[in-house]
Amino acid sequence: METDSLVVNAVIRELQQAQHLTAQLRSLVELGDYSYALKESAKVLSGELLQTCNLTLSKLKSQAPKSSMMKQKRKQLAHAHSVVRKQVTAAPYDDGHQWRKYGEKLLKGCIFKRSYYRCTYSGDRRCQAKKQVQKQAGTPTLFEVIYEGEHTCNPMSTTDHEMPPSDILTAISPPHDGSFLLHFGSTYS
């Protein structure tokens, strides 16, 4: 089975090389000082050769055995490219982002369940950020949070009609004389 896979992969590489060489030959003929009829004949033949290579590659790739080792390597590579960071905190839900819980699991040897979250904007803004939250066994007031991926949704961005957070703090800070005024108007300067 492993030998078949090696042979199929070698044939795929050879066909890809044939595609590349055919494309080079086609461009050389087009650039060369040949008659129009010869150029057209070369173009037709190279087109048929490329089409044959493409069909054969397609058939080989669909028949190539997918070993569990190949799937495992792909999964490891995908995980290696994502950003992972761990944090221990007493407030795992106050991190400035919005999350949607999509599962929980009780792990072997653990007292508390692990909860799994993805960014609320994973669908409409294609944000791939995820996090896992689990209470610490020794100190149940602390949580271990594992973040995977970076936020690409930018949910905290301000638009023209929103007040930036620094202006909000200034607007609600009481003056030094002890009085307090809070204004909820739709315009500000």
TrEMBL record:
One of its GO terms (cellular component) is nucleus. Keywords: DNA-binding, Nucleus, Transcription, Transcription regulation. It is found in: Nucleus. It comes from the Eukaryota. GO terms for molecular function: DNA-binding transcription factor activity; sequence-specific DNA binding. Coiled coil: none annotated. It holds the Pfam family WRKY. Its main location: nucleus. Signal peptide: none annotated. Residues 88-151 form the WRKY domain. Gene3D superfamilies: WRKY domain. The keyword Transcription regulation applies. This is WRKY transcription factor 59 isoform X1. It comes from Canna indica.
